[in-house]
Amino acid sequence: MVKVTVEADCGNAPRKEFLKQFHIALANSDSTFVIENITDNIHWEIVGNHTITNKEEFEKRILDSPLWNVKELVIDAIITHGNEASANGTVVTSDDLKFAFCNVYKFKGFKGTLLKSIQTYLIEF
What we know:
Blueprint: E1 3-6, H1 14-27, H2 31-36, E2 38-46, E3 50-52, H3 55-64, E4 70-81, E5 84-93, E6 98-107, E7 115-124
Parallel strand pairs: 1-4, 2-7
Antiparallel strand pairs: 2-3, 4-5, 5-6, 6-7
């Protein structure tokens, strides 16, 4: 089971709570939750690495990622405004690789939690 640490102020709004659960689902390899909460034409850019433009490719890529096998997740902050949000923190993989991350999200609309784009900044340290 993944050790999860979330700063106390991360759950003050429904979308903050959703993004907390989204990150926990990623860390726990919960593909059902993740795939159900993205659009069919999801746009996911891992800056400096690659860009994905559909749900099938997204699912394949996350299953191959070392970040799919996480043993520790720390979420430092989740910020939401309108249909945009961001989350940052650190992860430690099952292979003891350590990454700092920042994800910038766009939701499909001003209500709901369906994600239409994610821009990921990822630094191994």
